[in-house]
Amino acid sequence: MRFSALKILKEGLTGNRGWAPHWRDPAPKPEYDALIIGGGGHGLSTAYYLASQHGMSNIAVLEKGYLGGGNIGRNTTIVRANYGLPGNSEFYSHSLKLWERLEEELNYNVMHSQRGIVNLFHSDGARDAAARRGNAMINQGDDAILLDRAGVRRMLPFLDFDNARFPIYGGLYHPRGGTARHDAVAWGYARGADQRGVDLIQNCEVTGIDIENGAVTGVQTTRGPIRAKKVAMITAGRSGQVAAMAGMRLPIESHVLQAFVTEGLKPVLDTVVTFGMGHFYISQSDKGGLVFGGDIDMYASYAQRGNLPTAEHVIEAGMALMPMIGRAKLLRSWGGIMDMSPDGSPIIDRTHIDGLFLNTGWCYGGFKAVPASGHCMAHLMATGRPHEAAARFRLDRFETGQGLMDEEATGSQHNLH
Amino acid sequence: MRLTCPLCGARDRREFTYQGEAVALSRPDPDAGPEAWNTYLHLRENPAGWRDELWYHEQGCAAWLVVTRHTTTHEVRKVQLARDVAKAEGTA
């Protein structure tokens, strides 16, 4: 089934009886060429690119719940490529290019909206840092515009420019940044993978990883054993438990990150604004709700819900930045489990066990990475070599101390990011 | 969430700073080798369940605490002075 405007028109006139499920619901086969543990954004995009780029269609995604039920459905939907550190910057640049052709490639409306992002700054030093970052982005072939105070005021007249603690000096504008409909990204990749023969197996929890003579041979699941010579662990906040089945300990601690949405409002905010000094970022969804978030709750947690002090902190920051949102009613808040790495950057790598691959450590920035994460993970699994855009996401960088990617320059230990 | 400091009683979570899994009480010897130090600094069990954590009563008595807490329910079972735990374990 191919989506098109004509198809929507035809279905609309004929009672919408012609729509079919977007993917099959297959039973697991006894053996595949490769298995992906985790049916979230990263797992589904890996499956899609394994099938579409590397011709590997005899593969399966094993999901203990339902597809897209984790962080891909629990984020603030921001897509951007404004990283400054070598290793990260080329990876997110690669990801943004994949985003820009994703809808055509998948024939799926993921509502990718390049409405731009403004990162505010509040001091001369921060302006210098923003200018340097913007120049790095431009040199890489991406886009950045340094806005002065008047420039920000033209775009966002309702901000509190004269806040006593954080007066707004300007902002770094990244026009190609924006948002996307998070669930649709998972669904689009799932449909694309399914169409290429990938088995998406839901309600199938992996309970063991089989290893013989230092090589992976398959997994045990609640729906029986499945053999495969290649297995990828792509389970975000649950990475620790999955890796433990292979006898591994990871440099990961799981934390909860909250997000919030207000009731639907008329259009007030046509871009994404980040207020780094207040750990606050906000955009307006196409339904009208103001979607915003802040920092993690700052303690280890597997609860997909947060604590009130952090909610208070986030909302205070929002009020400091744009007092007009004080009249909006908060509709709901939720939390996701973040796979926090010591240096704040991700891991896409082999493990010491042959055929066992690892994709984790996305911290609170995994959504924008979904296309490139899958693309690079698929490349690694299919060819045995890291993709050049993700070559620095090595698992051993903590052990060796070489190639650490501390984007925030806060150190490379747990709980500093 | 409230934590019951052994010195100050039940106090608001905002008075405390979370440091991480309570591995600092068993710090390796300086010459223990890279593997022991990598394990100590980076690798974590990261359980979905009970575990011991180090918290600092920053806006209270400034004591370091070992908090036994459940990472899924956020239930707190026990709070001890880190000093006492370290003495009992013979690491202080």
What are the salient characteristics of this protein?
heterodimer, A: 417 residues, alpha/beta, FAD/NAD(P)-binding domain, D-Amino Acid Oxidase, Chain A, domain 2, eight-stranded mixed β-sheet, 28% helix, B: 92 residues, Folate-binding fold, two-stranded antiparallel ribbon, globular
Protein model, in words:
The complex is a heterodimer of chains A (417) and B (92). Chain A has helices at 5-13, 41-54, 88-100, 102-106, 124-139, 149-155, 182-195, 239-244, 308-321, 370-383, 397-400, and strands at 34-37, 59-62, 78-79, 117-121, 145-148, 170-174, 178-179, 199-201, 206-212, 215-221, 226-227, 230-233, 253-264, 272-275, 280-284, 289-300, 330-340, 347-350, 356-360. Chain A has 417 residues and is α/β, with parallel strands linked by helices. Chain A has two domains: 5-75 and 183-251 and 343-400, FAD/NAD(P)-binding domain (3-Layer(bba) Sandwich); 114-176 and 253-340, 2-Layer Sandwich (D-Amino Acid Oxidase, Chain A, domain 2), CATH 3.30.9.10. In chain A, the strands form four sheets. An eight-stranded mixed beta sheet of chain A has the order 5-6-4-14-15-16-13-17. In chain A, strands 8-2-1-12-19-18 form a six-stranded mixed beta sheet. In chain A, strands 9-10-11 form a three-stranded antiparallel beta sheet, with no helix packed on it. Chain A is globular, with a radius of gyration of 21 Å. By secondary structure, chain B is α+β, with helices and mostly antiparallel strands. Chain B has one domain: Folate-binding superfamily (Folate-binding fold, 2-Layer Sandwich). Helices cover 17% and strands 36% of the residues of chain B. Chain B is built from two helices and six strands; from the N terminus they run E-E-E-H-E-E-E-H. In chain B, the strands form two sheets. In chain B, strands 3-4-5-6 form a four-stranded antiparallel beta sheet. The longest helix of chain B has 8 residues, at 34-41. The mean pLDDT of chain B is 95. At the A-B interface, helix 8 and strand 16 of A face strand 3 and helix 1 of B.
